[in-house]
Amino acid sequence: MANYLNDNEDLRFYVDQAIDWKTLAENARLGGPVDVESTVQNYRDILELVGEFSADEVAPYSREVDEQEAVIENGEVVIPARVGEIFERMKALELHGLCIPEELGGMNCPLMVYALTGELLARSEVSVMTHWAFHGGMAMAMLIYSIDEGSTEIDLENHCLRSTRWQGYIEEIIAGTSWGSMDITEAHAGSDMAQLRTKADRDEDGNWTVTGSKIFISSGHGRFHFVVARTDHSEGEHKGLNGLSLFLVPAYTDHPDGTRTRHATVDRVDEKLGHHGSVTVQISFENSPAELVGKVGDGFRNMLLIMNNARINVGFESLGLMEAAYRMAKAYAADRPTMGKAIDKHELVADMLDEMRTDIQGLRALGVTAAFNEEMSQRLQIRLKAMASDDPGRAALLTEMATYKSYSRLTTPLIKFLSAEKAVELARRNMQIHGGSGYMCEYGAEKLLRDSLVLPIYEGTTQIQALMATKDHLGAILAAPGRFLARLGSSWLKAWLTPTRRRRSLAQIRWRALHAQFALLRKVVWAKWRSGTSMKHWDPKTDFAPALLQAENLSGLLVDRVILDILEAQAQQFPERQELLDRYLERAEPRSRHLHEKVCRGSRRLLDSLAEQAA
Ligand SMILES: Cc1cc2nc3c(=O)[nH]c(=O)nc-3n(C[C@H](O)[C@H](O)[C@H](O)COP(=O)(O)OP(=O)(O)OC[C@H]3O[C@@H](n4cnc5c(N)ncnc54)[C@H](O)[C@@H]3O)c2cc1C
Known about the structure:
The protein has helices at 9-18, 21-28, 36-58, 62-67, 81-92, 111-124, 126-149, 167-174, 299-335, 347-386, 394-433, 435-439, 445-452, 462-479, 481-497, 501-531, 540-543, 545-549, 551-573, 578-601, 604-614; strands spanning 71-73, 76-78, 153-155, 160-163, 180-183, 199-202, 208-218, 224-230, 244-250, 252-254, 260-262, 264-269, 280-293, 337-338, 341-342. The relative contact order is 0.08. Helix 10 crosses helix 19 (551-573) and helix 19 (551-573) runs antiparallel to helix 20. It folds into 4 domains: 1-178, Butyryl-Coa Dehydrogenase, subunit A, domain 1 (Orthogonal Bundle), CATH 1.10.540.10; 179-297, Butyryl-CoA Dehydrogenase, subunit A, domain 2 (Beta Barrel); 304-460, Butyryl-CoA Dehydrogenase, subunit A, domain 3 (Up-down Bundle), CATH 1.20.140; 479-614. By secondary structure, the protein is of the alpha+beta class. It is built from 21 helices and 15 strands. Strands 5, 6, 7, 8, 9, 12 and 13 form a 7-stranded mixed beta sheet that branches. A two-stranded antiparallel ribbon has the order 1-2. A two-stranded antiparallel sheet has the order 3-4. Flavin-adenine dinucleotide binds next to strand 5, strand 7 and helix 14.
């Protein structure tokens, strides 16, 4: 029997050695006592089961899933038989309640188990992973939102939940009879959420309804829709993020007599380039009964609350696809002879394969680290919420939580940014290594490329991730410029004075990442001075243009630096990982020089031309 966990040495390294399961297990139990050995063994068993299920029961049907599309019949979406069968098996394996607390019928696993399950499933069929994620992922969102708004009762003493607002919905999702979706995008508003127009109204009895149309909604044929809608109608042009609120809208109610009342209409199922096992719909709400989540005006904040998780999970989704592309390329290259030897022995092909493997391992290191930090930040926030304000342990827990949170905030856009772009790059390389066969449908390389192309688009595009990372990093410098300059100075000394070549090379990459930020801030200040506008008033949209232009290049520098930090720490703890550190460093070194050069040079021509057009 094949197994996508057991055949993957790098993934097994994390599952067996590198992940601090004990800390995650204790926090998953709200700090309660845990039989660590058996609990962690249970996590490993679950991942082995998913590895086997992915390899044996999903991957063999990937082509079939790709060839079939969902359709609308009598107002309901009908999914193809094969996708239905796969999800019936998932139901039987109870894969929708992985991280839901036992009190609600779930398995209470850490979110890390969910992330790794995502990678295993995505390697077998990425669209199946996407739809699976809208089950447990949305049930967890219900729980997180309920805890955040204070409608979940937590018993910290006994380390359990007493009740939660959407318990019935969560149980329905765990049972696999329904799932949720995140309904944000509209025809005129994707990246720019301030333009959203779907509106929510409250009647005199305090009941909310939602009216509007959402497009491109993944798994939007399910029952539970988190809808971002405008509650402040005072601004005529529908602008602004503060006027947005979040609602939970059940799209239908099923009655005991087998009939169904619809509260929202699925207008169409989108025809897509790939991801055919994941249904994407356009859906309309017309005075649909809605439940307000949290407070009025907190729609954008609430969306951000689960965004980090979602973006990390796209990172693991991308990793699964990359792993599939790499293995397909490797197997083909070992088998295909040209000019007297297999193509994997030709330098250029060997180089492509080596770089693919190195990219995957670097990104997995980042993914696991980001997932750990995000999970710890969330778990500690939950405990803090339930803790008495005068609890003596509160201050220490708060500091610990803040450290995890800030690390997660800085790394999450980076993993989404690079893993999605690399998924496309690796899928493209796989196709290239297949030569003409790669272009033919029979081999599956073109399918992976088609499937990969959406990864840099949804859950915030590559450009939006790069802008976020850039603004966060530059904002942090502006908040504490003295500390930044001290770091820059000491990194410069290390970059040139560190004695051994490898360590010096690492130090130089760190220095370039810092110096690039310094160079961008210098450009921003210089451009502002040149424009003649007051230095006292800053408009990030116009004044930060020189930095925004370089956001993707800067993100490239930052992500290599973070990955190398993680790999260096790993190599210190596990000497067998030194080889990976060296391999990644060899690739990152010239890349960092190139990106640093691009950031420092910039393009005054383009910026001047944009400024002229705007004037
Ligand atoms: C298969 C699929 C599934 C999806 N699932 C969902 C879902 O479940 N829920 C949901 O709400 N949405 C979903 N989406 C929508 C997706 O999130 C949006 O398409 C995405 O956010 C981009 O928005 P847009 O299409 O309006 O593009 P735009 O926002 O118009 O962007 C177009 C291009 O301009 C760039 N750009 C925009 N603004 C800037 C800027 N300030 N600086 C630099 N570059 C910029 C973007 O990066 C992009 O390259 C899905 C989309 C697809 C394709």
